[in-house]
From TrEMBL:
Name this polypeptide is given: Phosphoheptose isomerase
InterPro entries from the UniProt entry: GmhA/DiaA, SIS_dom, SIS_dom_sf, SIS_GmhA/DiaA_subfam
UniProt keyword list: Isomerase
Segments forming domain SIS: 36-218
GO molecular function, one term: isomerase activity
Listed PANTHER family: DNAA INITIATOR-ASSOCIATING PROTEIN DIAA (PTHR30390:SF6), SEDOHEPTULOSE 7-PHOSPHATE ISOMERASE / DNAA INITIATOR-ASSOCIATING FACTOR FOR REPLICATION INITIATION (PTHR30390)
PROSITE patterns found in the cross-reference section: SIS
Lineage: Bacteria, Bacillati, Bacillota, Clostridia, Lachnospirales
CDD domains, alphabetized: SIS_GmhA
Amino acid sequence: MGLLDKKIEKHVELLMERYPKLMSVREDIINGYIVLENCYRTGGKLLIAGNGGSASDSEHIAGELMKCFKIPRPVSKEYAKKLISIDSKRGPVLAQNLEQTLMAIPLVAHEALTTAYINDVDGVGVFAQQLFGFGKKGDVFLGISTSGNSKNIMNATVVARASGMKILSLTGAEGGELALVSDVAVKVPENETYMIQELHLPVYHCWCLMLEDKFFGK
């Protein structure tokens, strides 16, 4: 898909050094990052979903993107001035403590909405409903499924495609249906669920480091 800046590529090289098993999916990791970079550069956001441990990964990713991961992300001087002008007491504290974000929404985190949908309709369309409400053209849907065949993730990909979103996925070695419909699929080279999840984490940590360096690094 494209070449990386040297300062961004260094994160991939460190990942390969620490997890040589991921060398087989190096290009997919890079291509996945490029999808994410393009999304954020053009004003889009990331929507993430998974089940079980992958649901936890969804929230983990959002946590790394919505605040400082490694690099300080102070708000702009202009925004800081606005905060202070609005409230002379709270404004300075907010100006000092707020951090710039890369918008990421974990679809697993909306219990009232998801349980209502599951109760009233079904469980396999719950992420699709959220994507229909939250998503727009130019966003990215990241589906995390160790099998690549999770029904609720696959339903969400249909809505993502209909809405003009890119589809990025993290799966196991087989990839399943999810890999087939993804713009980029990172099929980590493991087949056992917990082992797949153990390799998903360093991949998405690498993406978060790369994105933060791109948008907030000096």
